[in-house]
């Protein structure tokens, strides 16, 4: 194997990588040792800002293959032929922990997919749950603050978490998911993924339907119990990362099947609850899963930082044939996600290899830090102009979206018709969880709520217990008993 010359970042060969230049063998170092300064200065800048949420994660490349024709719903080119393959990059993550936290923590898991399509990159940015804690983006900073660290103690605070959840009954459905064993999945390969939000699909006839995206794991669901997850936190805080890398390196490529649920526009207007509410699921009996294709992960990036840490996903990035919906949380993320990436990795984050569209890109964005694509060369940086032939292609125009109202106001997110926060959590407890799952759920909730401290402790506990009782009397009684809170069962049944 031939040797290669050691060089500076400017390509200049140098000889002393380990020894600094000094005035004599034991004298002070000299300012002219540029290699010393270059190494230390670059080292000081090796870290980019950590993601505010989803900081701890891993990722892999793979392929998405269409297995079923869904052209009656969408004209998106990614789906235009059975057997068609599209390259993807998928990043898994935990939500609340810092980059150095354990990836077996009780937490939702991010499930973000970048599809490199010929009509541009489509980012489907979801979680391993079909729902979320809140349904209005104005509440997101407050919610995340409660999942981070107490401003005085700089420690995680069960008091903050449960205070927020108890004051926001819309969070109950997701709290139930989180506190079940689904909150501690066995790595990333053994969990489902969801687009979570309601999106739209538009077909060749410009007809719109609303859809939910589901990814069902082919590896089978597997979760840690709470005790197992806590034990693994100490044994290997990078368990999920290591599990994915080892599986793919061994040729055991994980797979998921993509499904969609479809609701037409008329159904969305008359449905019994707001179908764009992120705290609700759609009934699979009423809106059955329709198979679309399979996704396989088969390549670990050669360099974690280059591809996983610098990967940037944004729900704003939809391609022709796939669109938005009135989902309020989705509307908020359309703004906040690209803004977060511009702050974290710069205005030209989409020129980085992992984020770059591999097909044609034509626009008039110029300059900014780290412009990597030739910066447009000598071509015009304005539109319209007399020198190029770049024009909007009107065949990509979406049909007009009919508004329900022309009155702008601050609508109560929990107003009439929006305030049933208990039916679906109750169904989840009674009909989805097994007897063993119910036992673990109660134990996990009791353990988590036992950490509530301070003079407001009983006020917070009682407020949250009311939510559990409204979802299911048996659930509320079991949690109250575990917390040592005396409840008049007959009074609760008639409340």
From TrEMBL:
Q: Does the keyword Cytoplasm apply?
A: no
Q: Could you tell me which InterPro entries the record lists for this protein?
A: Catalase, Catalase_3, Catalase_AS, Catalase_clade1/3, Catalase_core, Catalase_immune_responsive, Catalase_sf
For this protein, the record's PROSITE patterns field holds:
CATALASE_2, CATALASE_3
- Give the Pfam families listed for this entry: Catalase (PF00199), Catalase-rel (PF06628)
Record keywords: Metal-binding included? yes
Q: Could you name the domain of life of the organism this protein comes from?
A: Bacteria
Tell me its cofactors. Answer: heme
List its EC numbers: 1.11.1.6
Top-level EC class, please? Answer: oxidoreductase
Q: Which SUPFAM superfamilies match?
A: Heme-dependent catalase-like
Q: Which UniProt keywords apply?
A: Heme, Hydrogen peroxide, Iron, Metal-binding, Oxidoreductase, Peroxidase
Residue span(s) of domain Catalase core: 7-391
Q: Which family does it belong to?
A: Belongs to the catalase family.
Q: What name has this protein been given in UniProt? A: catalase
Specify the species: Rurimicrobium arvi
Q: What is the lineage of its organism?
A: Bacteria, Pseudomonadati, Bacteroidota, Chitinophagia, Chitinophagales
């Amino acid at each position: 194997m031939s040797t290669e010359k050691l060089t500076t970042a400017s390509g200049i060969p140098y000889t002393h990588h380990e020894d600094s230049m000094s005035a004599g063998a034991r004298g002070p170092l000299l300012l002219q040792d540029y290699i010393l300064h270059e190494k230390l200065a670059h080292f000081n800048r090796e870290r980019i800002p950590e993601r505010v949420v989803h900081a701890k994660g891993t990722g892999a490349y793979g392929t998405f293959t269409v297995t079923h024709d869904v052209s009656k719903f969408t004209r998106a080119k990614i789906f235009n032929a059975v057997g068609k393959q599209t390259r993807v990059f998928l990043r898994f993550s935990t939500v609340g922990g810092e980059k150095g936290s354990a990836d077996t923590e009780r937490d939702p898991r991010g499930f973000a997919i970048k599809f490199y399509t010929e009509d541009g990159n489509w980012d489907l940015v979801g979680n391993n749950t079909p729902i979320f804690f809140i349904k209005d983006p104005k509440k997101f900073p407050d919610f995340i603050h409660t999942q981070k660290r107490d401003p005085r103690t700089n420690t995680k605070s069960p008091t903050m978490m449960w205070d927020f959840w108890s004051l926001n009954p819309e969070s109950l459905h997701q709290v139930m998911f989180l506190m079940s064993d689904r909150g501690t999945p066995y790595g990333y390969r053994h969990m489902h993924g969801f687009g979570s939000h309601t999106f739209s699909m538009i077909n060749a006839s410009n007809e719109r339907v609303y859809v939910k995206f589901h990814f069902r794991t082919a590896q089978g669901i597997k979760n840690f119990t709470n005790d197992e997850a806590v034990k693994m936190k100490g044994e290997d805080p990078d368990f999920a990362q290591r599990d994915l890398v080892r599986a793919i390196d061994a040729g055991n490529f994980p797979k998921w099947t993509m499904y969609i649920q479809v609701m037409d526009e008329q159904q969305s207007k008359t449905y019994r609850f707001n179908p764009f509410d992120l705290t609700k699921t759609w009934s699979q009996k009423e809106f059955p899963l329709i198979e679309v294709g399979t996704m396989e992960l088969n390549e670990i990036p050669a360099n974690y930082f280059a591809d996983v840490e610098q990967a940037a996903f944004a729900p704003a990035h939809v391609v022709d044939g796939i669109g938005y919906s009135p989902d309020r949380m989705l509307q908020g993320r359309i703004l906040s996600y690209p803004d977060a990436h511009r702050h974290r990795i710069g205005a030209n984050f989409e020129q980085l290899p992992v984020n770059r569209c591999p097909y044609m890109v034509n626009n008039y964005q110029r300059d900014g830090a780290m412009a990597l694509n030739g910066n447009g060369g000598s071509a015009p940086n304005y539109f319209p102009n007399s020198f190029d032939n770049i024009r909007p292609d009107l065949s990509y125009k979406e049909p007009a979206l009919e508004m329900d109202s022309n009155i702008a106001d601050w609508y109560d997110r929990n107003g009439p018709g929006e305030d049933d926060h208990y039916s679906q959590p109750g169904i989840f407890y009674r009909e989805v969880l097994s007897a063993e799952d119910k036992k673990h759920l109660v134990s996990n909730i009791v353990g988590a709520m036992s950490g509530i401290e301070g003079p407001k402790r009983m006020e917070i506990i009682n407020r949250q217990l009311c939510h559990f009782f409204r979802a299911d009397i048996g659930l509320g009684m079991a949690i109250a008993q575990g917390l040592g809170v005396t409840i008049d069962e007959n009074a609760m049944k008639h409340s």
